[in-house]
Amino acid sequence: MTLALVLIGLSGSGKSTVAKLAAHRLHLPFVDTDRLIELSAGATVAAVFSSRGEEEFRRVEAAIVASTCSVQQVVATGGGAILRAENRAAMRGGNFVVWLDVPVPVLAHRLAAHVHGEERPLLRGSDVVASLQHLYEERRDLYAQTAHVRYADPLGLTRGSRHAVREVTRIYGEWLATRRDASA
Questions:
Q1: Residues 6+ apart with CB under 8 A from 73
Q2: Are 74 and 22 in contact (CB under 8 A)?
Q3: Closest Cα to residue 65, out of 18, 89, 43, 33?
Q4: Per-residue three-class SS string for 123-149
Q5: φ, ψ for residue 76 (rounded to 5)?
Q6: What pTM value is reported for the model?
Q7: Which of 35, 51, 94, 140 could form a disulfide with 1 if both were Cys (CB 3.0 to 4.6 A apart)?
Q8: How far is it, in rounded angstroms, from Cα 104 to Cα 12?
């Protein structure tokens, strides 16, 4: 049992931001699977998609998800990490999974600002709102099946990421306590 805290959700939902702050608050290591993929591949996520294709990206992602979910730490996953059954199993295997569910218009606004200049390969050259809506509809059930908890803010974390971090870490702490009590 690894007891990792794993964050899932669409691109732009705040997984990396919330995970980094939660890791600090919990005194646990923080990892971002997309950043680990970039280190492993020696290229950006967009470049891996472009040069090697989505299937190769997902293969590398699966290996990284398996390794990151086997250690007690806080893990920010890529938006599509839940697409593979093996990733969903690794995330749930003794870990606590939180779905950051942010409305599509808020995600589109965030991504349109090109935060940190990141390219989002599945959104390139398209109507961002329509693409995000399609991805949401395609993935919603997988997010729901994978997550122990859905953290939703109808206005898109309007109370700020600090509130999200407080709630996520509180719920994770309660979950940890029940796991430890059950094993005692």
A1: 4, 5, 23, 28, 29, 30, 31
A2: yes
A3: 33
A4: HCCCCHHHHHHHHHHHHHHHHHHHCCE
A5: -100, 120
A6: 0.90
A7: 94
A8: 9
DSSP the chain: ----EEEE-STTSSHHHHHHHHHHHHT--EEEHHHHHHHHHTS-HHHHHHHH-HHHHHHHHHHHHHHHTTSSSEEEPPTTGGGSHHHHHHHHTTSEEEEEE--HHHHHHHHHTTGGG---GGGTTS-HHHHHHHHHHHHHHHHHHH-SEEEE-TTSSTT-HHHHHHHHHHHHHHHHHHHHHHH-
**Tens digit of each residue's pLDDT, the chain (184 residues):** 679 999 999 988 989 999 999 999 999 999 999 999 999 989 988 888 889 988 999 999 999 999 999 999 999 999 999 999 999 999 999 999 999 999 998 888 777 765 444 555 445 556 778 888 999 999 999 999 999 999 987 555 555 678 889 999 999 999 999 987 777 6
Query: Residue 60 in contact with residue 70, Cβ under 8 Å?
Result: no
Task: Give the Cα separation of 118 and 176 in Å (integer).
Answer: 34
